[in-house]
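Form 7-S
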Amino acid sequence: MAAVLSLRTISQLHPNLSSRRVTIKPRAALHGARRMRVPYQLKQEQSRLFHRLPSGLNMEVIVHKRVAEKQSDEEKERPSENPPLDFVHGSYHAAWCWAEHWLPFFSASGYDCYAVSLLGQGESDAPSASVSGTLQTHASDVADFICKKLTLPPVLIGHSFGGLIIQYYIANAKTNQISDKRDLFPKLTGAVLVCSVPPSGNRLTFLIFSSGLVWRYLFPKPIAAFKVTRSLAAKGFQTSLSLCKETFFSATMEDHLVLRYQELMKESSRMPLFDLRKLNASLPVPSVPKSAIELLVLGANDDFIVDAEGLNETGRFYGVSPICVKGVAHDMMLDCLREKGAKAILSWLEDLKREQLR
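Output:
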C-alpha cells in the first residue's frame, strides 16, 4: 500500500534534507489512467509501452516479441534475422486490433511485432487540435518510433487508412534518400497494404465531397453507398450491430465477437483520425518509381469499404499484382478467416527473405 509522507515527516526521518527543497515528479498521466473506458487486456507475452514523440505526446505501442521457446540459449540471445513488423491501424481502431490475433501469429513465426496507436486513438495521448493529425504528422510519428526504437529496417503493415499513411511514408522515404532529411523517414525492408485506402482516397472521403470514386460506386450500388456513409461518416456502426457487422466483418462472424469489437472501436477513436476536407485536398499521394520498394497489396473479397477497383487501383499505382483473399471482410485481422490473410503475408515475407539471401 502506497503511503503519502508530509514534508514534516520527511524532514524528521531525514534531518539532513530539511534545508533542501524536495521536488516530487509526477508520473505521466497516461500510465496512471486509461484513455479507453473499455480497456484492451493484453495477451500473454505482450507488453505495452508509450513512445515519447518530439511533440511531447505519448504514443501507445503494443509489443509482442518473437517466440523463442524452441531455440537454444545462444539462439535466443542472437538478434533475429527477420525484420521487425510495425503495424498501423485505420479509423476507429487502435493497436489492439493487431494484438488480438495477428501479433501472436507473426511472433510465433519468428518476428518481433509492434503495433502503434496513432494519436487520439487507443491509449495514446490526444493532441489539442480538433483532429488526430494529418497524413504528414501520422507518418512522421511512425517514422520517429522506427528511428528511435527499432534497430533493423522494418516491414510496415497498414490497414485501411493506415495503409494510406504508409503510402505517404513510402513516398517521403524515397524522396528523402536524396536529401539531408533521410533520417526523418528511415529505410524500410518492405510494406504491406491491407484493405488499404487507394492512393486517390476512398469512397468515404469522396462520398462526403461528391466526386471521384463516389460516382463509380454510387450509381451501381446506391443502397451500399448510403449504408457506408451512414456507417462511417455518421458513425452508425457504433450503435447498430447489423451495420457494424456488414461494414467490417463477414456475415458468419459471431454476434458476441462483433459486440466486443464494436465496443473497442467506439472507445478507440476519441477524435477523428483526419480532417477529411484537408485530406482530400492532399490526395493522391506522391508516386514512387516502380519497384522502388518491396510491396504487397492485399485485399478482401467481401470488403464493404474498399471495393475491387480500389484494390486494383493501388496495385496499378505501385506496379504490383494485388492478392484478394476470398471469404474475408474489411477487418481481415479480426474476421472469421483471419488466418488466411496472415498466411498470405507470411508467405510474402518468406519470399522476401529468400530474395534478400540471393
